[in-house]
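[Meeting: bench + compute handoff]

Bench side (C.D.) handed over the final construct sequence. Compute side (W.E.) agreed to return the predicted structure before the next meeting so the bench team could plan truncations. Sequence as handed over:
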Amino acid sequence: MEKLGKIVKFLDEFLDIKNIKDDSWNGLQWQGKDEVEKIMCTVDAGATVFKKAAEEKADLIIVHHGNYWKHLNPSFTGANKKRLEILYKHGISLYAAHLPLDMHPEIGNNVMLLKVIGAKKSKPFFPYEGKSISFCGVFSKKVKLDEVERKLNEALGIKCRVLPYGSETIRTVAVISGGGGYTGFNEALKEGVDLYISGDTLEVFHLAKDTGINVIFGGHHATETLGVRELAKVLEKKFHVKAKFIDIPTGL
Protein backbone atom coordinates (compact mmCIF):
# COMPACT_ATOMS: atom_id res chain seq x y z
CA MET A 1 0.00 0.00 0.00
CA GLU A 2 1.33 3.44 -0.96
CA LYS A 3 0.45 7.05 -0.17
CA LEU A 4 -1.55 8.84 -2.87
CA GLY A 5 0.79 11.84 -2.74
CA LYS A 6 3.83 9.71 -3.49
CA ILE A 7 2.21 8.17 -6.57
CA VAL A 8 0.94 11.54 -7.82
CA LYS A 9 4.39 13.10 -7.42
CA PHE A 10 5.91 10.30 -9.47
CA LEU A 11 3.26 10.62 -12.20
CA ASP A 12 3.65 14.40 -12.40
CA GLU A 13 7.39 14.06 -12.92
CA PHE A 14 7.37 10.95 -15.11
CA LEU A 15 4.77 12.44 -17.46
CA ASP A 16 6.20 16.00 -17.25
CA ILE A 17 2.73 17.33 -16.47
CA LYS A 18 3.71 20.91 -15.63
CA ASN A 19 5.66 21.58 -18.83
CA ILE A 20 3.07 20.49 -21.41
CA LYS A 21 0.34 22.89 -22.55
CA ASP A 22 -3.02 21.21 -22.91
CA ASP A 23 -6.78 21.82 -22.82
CA SER A 24 -6.99 19.13 -20.16
CA TRP A 25 -6.35 19.96 -16.52
CA ASN A 26 -3.75 17.23 -16.24
CA GLY A 27 -2.76 15.77 -12.91
CA LEU A 28 -4.81 14.86 -9.85
CA GLN A 29 -8.37 15.96 -10.64
CA TRP A 30 -10.19 14.46 -7.65
CA GLN A 31 -8.66 13.52 -4.31
CA GLY A 32 -9.98 10.47 -2.51
CA LYS A 33 -8.47 8.33 0.23
CA ASP A 34 -4.82 8.81 1.21
CA GLU A 35 -3.82 5.16 0.92
CA VAL A 36 -3.68 3.42 -2.47
CA GLU A 37 -3.69 -0.33 -2.81
CA LYS A 38 -5.31 -0.79 -6.21
CA ILE A 39 -5.14 1.36 -9.36
CA MET A 40 -7.39 1.13 -12.41
CA CYS A 41 -6.00 2.53 -15.67
CA THR A 42 -8.40 3.23 -18.53
CA VAL A 43 -9.04 5.72 -21.34
CA ASP A 44 -12.01 7.85 -20.29
CA ALA A 45 -13.64 9.49 -17.30
CA GLY A 46 -17.37 8.95 -16.88
CA ALA A 47 -20.05 7.52 -14.60
CA THR A 48 -19.83 4.06 -16.20
CA VAL A 49 -16.06 4.05 -15.69
CA PHE A 50 -16.30 5.28 -12.11
CA LYS A 51 -18.88 2.61 -11.25
CA LYS A 52 -16.57 -0.02 -12.71
CA ALA A 53 -13.73 1.30 -10.57
CA ALA A 54 -15.93 1.00 -7.49
CA GLU A 55 -16.78 -2.61 -8.43
CA GLU A 56 -13.06 -3.30 -8.82
CA LYS A 57 -12.43 -1.67 -5.42
CA ALA A 58 -9.89 0.67 -6.99
CA ASP A 59 -8.49 3.50 -4.87
CA LEU A 60 -7.17 5.50 -7.84
CA ILE A 61 -8.29 5.80 -11.46
CA ILE A 62 -5.82 7.02 -14.09
CA VAL A 63 -7.38 8.15 -17.37
CA HIS A 64 -6.31 9.70 -20.64
CA HIS A 65 -9.48 11.75 -21.06
CA GLY A 66 -10.18 13.33 -17.68
CA ASN A 67 -13.16 15.04 -16.09
CA TYR A 68 -11.87 18.62 -16.20
CA TRP A 69 -11.19 20.52 -19.42
CA LYS A 70 -10.50 24.21 -19.87
CA HIS A 71 -13.49 24.71 -22.17
CA LEU A 72 -16.03 22.94 -19.91
CA ASN A 73 -17.95 24.29 -16.91
CA PRO A 74 -16.37 22.77 -13.77
CA SER A 75 -19.46 23.34 -11.58
CA PHE A 76 -20.53 20.46 -9.36
CA THR A 77 -23.91 20.20 -11.07
CA GLY A 78 -25.74 17.99 -13.56
CA ALA A 79 -23.65 15.27 -15.20
CA ASN A 80 -20.56 16.45 -13.33
CA LYS A 81 -22.31 15.93 -9.99
CA LYS A 82 -23.54 12.50 -11.12
CA ARG A 83 -19.99 11.46 -11.96
CA LEU A 84 -18.12 12.87 -9.02
CA GLU A 85 -20.55 11.66 -6.36
CA ILE A 86 -19.46 8.13 -7.27
CA LEU A 87 -15.83 9.02 -6.58
CA TYR A 88 -16.76 10.78 -3.34
CA LYS A 89 -18.89 7.91 -2.08
CA HIS A 90 -16.13 5.35 -2.58
CA GLY A 91 -13.13 7.55 -1.76
CA ILE A 92 -11.64 7.05 -5.23
CA SER A 93 -9.07 9.50 -6.62
CA LEU A 94 -8.92 10.52 -10.30
CA TYR A 95 -5.74 11.37 -12.20
CA ALA A 96 -5.72 12.53 -15.84
CA ALA A 97 -2.92 12.67 -18.40
CA HIS A 98 -3.97 13.76 -21.89
CA LEU A 99 -1.22 15.10 -24.17
CA PRO A 100 1.50 14.06 -21.69
CA LEU A 101 0.45 10.46 -22.31
CA ASP A 102 0.18 10.89 -26.07
CA MET A 103 3.70 12.26 -26.43
CA HIS A 104 5.66 10.38 -23.76
CA PRO A 105 8.84 9.02 -25.42
CA GLU A 106 8.81 5.67 -23.59
CA ILE A 107 5.22 4.59 -22.91
CA GLY A 108 3.10 7.14 -24.77
CA ASN A 109 0.26 6.22 -27.11
CA ASN A 110 2.21 7.19 -30.21
CA VAL A 111 5.51 5.53 -29.43
CA MET A 112 3.57 2.40 -28.51
CA LEU A 113 1.74 2.49 -31.87
CA LEU A 114 5.14 2.45 -33.56
CA LYS A 115 6.26 -0.40 -31.33
CA VAL A 116 3.14 -2.44 -32.12
CA ILE A 117 3.78 -2.28 -35.87
CA GLY A 118 7.53 -2.85 -35.53
CA ALA A 119 8.78 0.61 -36.55
CA LYS A 120 11.45 2.68 -34.78
CA LYS A 121 11.15 6.37 -33.93
CA SER A 122 12.91 8.47 -36.54
CA LYS A 123 11.95 12.09 -35.76
CA PRO A 124 9.32 14.26 -34.04
CA PHE A 125 5.92 14.71 -35.71
CA PHE A 126 2.86 16.95 -35.28
CA PRO A 127 3.91 20.20 -33.55
CA TYR A 128 1.56 21.70 -30.95
CA GLU A 129 2.26 24.74 -28.77
CA GLY A 130 5.98 24.52 -29.47
CA LYS A 131 6.35 20.79 -28.83
CA SER A 132 5.82 17.72 -30.97
CA ILE A 133 3.03 15.44 -29.82
CA SER A 134 4.08 12.42 -31.84
CA PHE A 135 6.73 10.75 -33.98
CA CYS A 136 7.54 9.51 -37.44
CA GLY A 137 8.90 6.01 -37.68
CA VAL A 138 10.91 3.84 -40.02
CA PHE A 139 10.97 0.08 -40.61
CA SER A 140 14.32 -1.67 -40.80
CA LYS A 141 13.08 -3.22 -44.03
CA LYS A 142 9.97 -2.66 -46.11
CA VAL A 143 6.81 -4.32 -44.86
CA LYS A 144 3.49 -4.94 -46.55
CA LEU A 145 0.57 -2.67 -45.77
CA ASP A 146 -1.72 -5.58 -44.92
CA GLU A 147 0.86 -6.82 -42.39
CA VAL A 148 0.77 -3.45 -40.60
CA GLU A 149 -3.02 -3.57 -40.65
CA ARG A 150 -3.02 -7.08 -39.17
CA LYS A 151 -0.71 -6.09 -36.31
CA LEU A 152 -2.88 -3.09 -35.45
CA ASN A 153 -6.09 -5.12 -35.56
CA GLU A 154 -4.60 -7.69 -33.18
CA ALA A 155 -3.05 -5.19 -30.77
CA LEU A 156 -6.04 -2.86 -30.60
CA GLY A 157 -8.77 -5.47 -30.84
CA ILE A 158 -10.53 -3.73 -33.70
CA LYS A 159 -10.96 -3.73 -37.46
CA CYS A 160 -9.06 -0.77 -38.90
CA ARG A 161 -10.32 1.37 -41.77
CA VAL A 162 -7.73 1.43 -44.55
CA LEU A 163 -7.20 3.70 -47.54
CA PRO A 164 -4.61 1.68 -49.56
CA TYR A 165 -3.59 4.35 -52.04
CA GLY A 166 0.18 4.39 -51.65
CA SER A 167 2.87 1.80 -52.14
CA GLU A 168 2.01 -1.81 -51.22
CA THR A 169 5.23 -1.94 -49.20
CA ILE A 170 5.92 0.52 -46.38
CA ARG A 171 9.20 1.99 -45.14
CA THR A 172 8.18 5.26 -43.45
CA VAL A 173 5.20 6.04 -41.24
CA ALA A 174 3.74 8.91 -39.22
CA VAL A 175 1.40 8.25 -36.29
CA ILE A 176 -0.97 10.36 -34.21
CA SER A 177 -3.25 8.63 -31.74
CA GLY A 178 -6.83 9.73 -31.15
CA GLY A 179 -7.81 12.69 -33.29
CA GLY A 180 -5.05 14.02 -35.50
CA GLY A 181 -7.58 15.85 -37.63
CA TYR A 182 -6.83 17.34 -41.01
CA THR A 183 -3.76 19.04 -39.56
CA GLY A 184 -2.20 15.67 -38.78
CA PHE A 185 -3.03 14.30 -42.20
CA ASN A 186 -1.56 17.36 -43.93
CA GLU A 187 1.59 17.10 -41.80
CA ALA A 188 1.97 13.51 -42.96
CA LEU A 189 1.70 14.64 -46.58
CA LYS A 190 4.43 17.23 -45.95
CA GLU A 191 6.67 14.55 -44.45
CA GLY A 192 6.19 12.39 -47.55
CA VAL A 193 5.68 9.20 -45.53
CA ASP A 194 4.38 5.97 -47.05
CA LEU A 195 1.75 5.51 -44.35
CA TYR A 196 -0.25 7.70 -41.97
CA ILE A 197 -1.90 6.11 -38.91
CA SER A 198 -4.42 7.92 -36.73
CA GLY A 199 -7.59 7.30 -34.76
CA ASP A 200 -10.53 9.33 -36.03
CA THR A 201 -11.63 8.83 -39.62
CA LEU A 202 -11.44 11.82 -41.95
CA GLU A 203 -12.97 12.58 -45.33
CA VAL A 204 -9.64 12.32 -47.14
CA PHE A 205 -10.53 9.57 -49.60
CA HIS A 206 -9.81 11.56 -52.76
CA LEU A 207 -6.81 13.47 -51.44
CA ALA A 208 -5.18 10.27 -50.18
CA LYS A 209 -5.84 8.61 -53.53
CA ASP A 210 -4.61 11.56 -55.59
CA THR A 211 -1.45 12.08 -53.51
CA GLY A 212 -0.67 8.37 -53.28
CA ILE A 213 -0.50 7.85 -49.52
CA ASN A 214 -1.69 4.91 -47.41
CA VAL A 215 -3.90 5.76 -44.45
CA ILE A 216 -5.04 3.59 -41.55
CA PHE A 217 -7.68 4.75 -39.07
CA GLY A 218 -7.71 2.67 -35.89
CA GLY A 219 -10.40 4.46 -33.90
CA HIS A 220 -9.99 7.28 -31.39
CA HIS A 221 -10.53 5.10 -28.33
CA ALA A 222 -8.56 2.04 -29.43
CA THR A 223 -5.43 3.98 -30.45
CA GLU A 224 -5.36 5.58 -27.00
CA THR A 225 -5.52 2.39 -24.95
CA LEU A 226 -1.81 1.67 -25.31
CA GLY A 227 -0.43 4.42 -23.08
CA VAL A 228 -2.59 3.72 -20.02
CA ARG A 229 -1.98 0.00 -20.51
CA GLU A 230 1.79 0.54 -20.29
CA LEU A 231 1.46 3.00 -17.44
CA ALA A 232 -0.28 0.33 -15.37
CA LYS A 233 2.80 -1.88 -15.81
CA VAL A 234 5.14 0.94 -14.77
CA LEU A 235 3.16 1.68 -11.60
CA GLU A 236 2.86 -1.96 -10.56
CA LYS A 237 6.62 -2.35 -10.89
CA LYS A 238 7.45 0.95 -9.19
CA PHE A 239 5.06 0.75 -6.23
CA HIS A 240 3.65 -1.93 -3.94
CA VAL A 241 0.21 -1.71 -5.54
CA LYS A 242 -1.99 -3.62 -7.94
CA ALA A 243 -2.33 -1.68 -11.18
CA LYS A 244 -4.71 -2.98 -13.82
CA PHE A 245 -5.73 -1.78 -17.28
CA ILE A 246 -9.45 -2.16 -17.82
CA ASP A 247 -10.85 -1.34 -21.23
CA ILE A 248 -14.34 0.12 -21.46
CA PRO A 249 -14.76 0.39 -25.26
CA THR A 250 -16.79 3.19 -26.80
CA GLY A 251 -16.87 1.89 -30.36
CA LEU A 252 -15.48 5.24 -31.54
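W.E. noted at the follow-up: The CA atoms of residues 182 and 232 lie 31 Å apart. C.D. will use this when planning the next construct.
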